UniProtKB/TrEMBL annotation:
Residues 28-47 have a biased composition (Polar residues). This is Substrate-binding domain-containing protein. Residues 55-312 form the Periplasmic binding protein domain. Residues 1-26 form the signal peptide. It comes from the Bacteria. InterPro entries: Peripla_BP_I, SBP_2_dom. Pfam families: Peripla_BP_4 (PF13407). Keywords: Signal. Belongs to the bacterial solute-binding protein 2 family.
Length: 348
C-alpha cells in the first residue's frame, strides 16, 4: 500500500542538518552483541587506558524498547574501556529497590555512579549522599530535585523533539502546498508526564512559526495497545488528515497497526524516539520521518563518569571540565539520512 510520502515531494530543510551528539550505538539486544561508534574520536589522551575505576550503574526495568536500549548501551560502553569495571544493578521500576542499589554502591566505595532514576525526586536524597561521600553522580534523563545530587546531568530534549517535529511538519506544508487548510494531528504519550507536555509544547510552538496549529490531538500510554486505540480513535474522528506526529515509536507499533487496519495512508506520518521499526518503515516508504530521543544517554553517562573518576576533562572544550549539564540534540531521520541513523535505532 503506497504511502503519501512516496507520491509527494519530500521536505528536507534545515532539519536534515541537525547533528546527533550521542556517541554509542543502540539496540535492545543483549550487551554482548552491542557495538559502539567506531568513527574516529577527538585527538586526545582521554581514550587511552588510565587509572582503573569502578562505576556503578542503576537503570530502569527493560519493559520498553527505549529503556532496554538505555541499559544495553550503557553496559556496552563500559566494556569498551579496559580501565573500567562497570557494576550493573538489576533494572527496576521500584524507587525503594533503586535506593538500596545506590546505598550498596556507596558502601562499596565505587569511583562514580551513573543513575537513571525511576523517580528523580525519590532518588535525590541517596544521590546527594553519594555526592557527599565524594562519589560523583551522573544523572541521566530524569532529573533530581536538587542541584547538589549530581555532578553532571545528561538529558534528552523533549521540548526539542516537539520543535523538530513541528518544524519538519511546517516544511512538509510548504513543500507540498498544503497551505492554511492542512490538517495537523498529534498522538501524544502519557499526558500526566512532564516529558509529554514538553513534547506537545514544542510541537505547538514550532507550528506557530508557519501559521499552523494542532487540529486534533489524542494521547496514549506509551504502549502498543494504547497507541493502537488512540490512533483508531483519531482516524474515526477525522476523515482526512495531512500530517500525524506520534510521540513514541514503541507506541507507534500500535499506531501503525491502526493505520493499516483502517487502510489509511493519505497523511505524512512522523514518529518519535528513533526505533529500528520506524527507520525500516521510512526505508519502505511507509513513514515520513522520526525524531530521535537518544537512547544512548546512559552510555554517554558512563563515558562521562569515567572522565570524572579519572580527573579528566573534555578535550573538545576550551574549558576542559566536564559540563554540569548536557542536553542532547533531537535530529529528524528521513529517507535521506536513515542509513546514517539506523545503527542508533532500538528494537521495539
Amino acid at each position: 500500500m503506497p504511502h503519501r510520502s512516496s507520491r509527494l515531494l519530500r521536505a528536507t530543510g534545515a532539519i536534515a542538518a541537525l547533528a546527533l551528539l550521542t556517541t554509542a550505538c543502540t539496540s535492545n539486544e543483549p550487551a554482548s552483541q552491542e557495538t559502539t561508534n567506531t568513527d574516529p574520536r577527538a585527538v586526545s589522551s582521554n581514550d587511552d587506558p588510565g587509572k582503573e575505576v569502578v562505576i556503578g550503574f542503576s537503570g530502569p526495568e527493560s519493559d520498553h524498547g527505549w529503556l532496554g536500549a538505555i541499559n544495553s548501551t550503557a553496559v556496552a560502553e563500559g566494556e569498551e574501556y579496559e580501565d573500567v569495571t562497570l557494576r550493573v544493578a538489576e533494572g527496576t521500576n521500584d524507587p525503594s529497590m533503586q535506593i538500596s542499589h545506590i546505598e550498596t554502591f556507596i558502601n562499596d566505595g565505587v569511583d562514580a555512579i551513573v543513575l537513571l532514576p525511576t523517580d528523580g525526586a525519590a532518588l535525590t536524597k541517596v544521590a546527594t549522599q553519594a555526592m557527599d561521600a565524594g562519589i560523583p553522580v551522573v544523572n541521566v534523563d530524569r532529573e533530581f530535585s536538587s542541584e547538589f545530587a549530581a555532578r553532571t546531568t545528561i538529558l534528552g530534549d523533549n521540548y526539542g523533539m516537539g520543535v523538530s517535529a513541528g518544524t519538519y511538519a511546517c516544511n512538509l506544508v510548504e513543500e507540498n502546498d498544503l497551505g492554511g487548510d492542512a490538517v495537523v494531528t498529534e498522538i501524544a504519550g502519557t499526558d500526566s508526564l512532564p516529558l509529554t507536555q514538553d513534547r506537545s509544547d514544542g510541537f505547538k510552538d514550532a507550528l506557530k512559526e508557519c501559521g499552523q496549529e494542532v487540529d486534533h490531538r489524542v494521547a496514549g500510554e506509551f504502549t502498543v495497545e494504547s497507541g493502537e486505540q488512540a490512533a483508531s480513535n483519531l482516524l474515526q474522528a477525522v476523515p482526512e488528515i495531512d500530517i500525524i506526529w506520534n510521540h513514541d515509536d514503541d507506541q507507534g507499533v500500535g499506531v501503525k497497526a491502526a493505520f493499516d487496519n483502517a487502510s489509511r495512508d493519505e497523511f505524512f506520518f512522523i514518529g518519535g524516539a528513533g526505533s529500528k521499526n520506524a527507520m525500516r518503515w521510512i526505508q519502505q516508504g511507509e513513514m515520513e520521518a522520526t525524531v530521535l530521543y537518544p537512547p544512548t544517554q546512559a552510555a554517554d553517562g558512563v563515558r562521562l563518569a569515567r572522565l570524572l573518576a579519572q580527573d579528566k576533562g573534555m578535550s573538545d572544550l576550551v574549558q576542559r571540565e566536564v559540563p554540569r549539564r548536557i542536553v542532547l540534540n533531537a535530529p529528524v531521520v528521513t529517507e535521506e539520512n536513515v542509513e546514517e541513523y539506523l545503527p542508533l535505532g532500538f528494537e521495539s
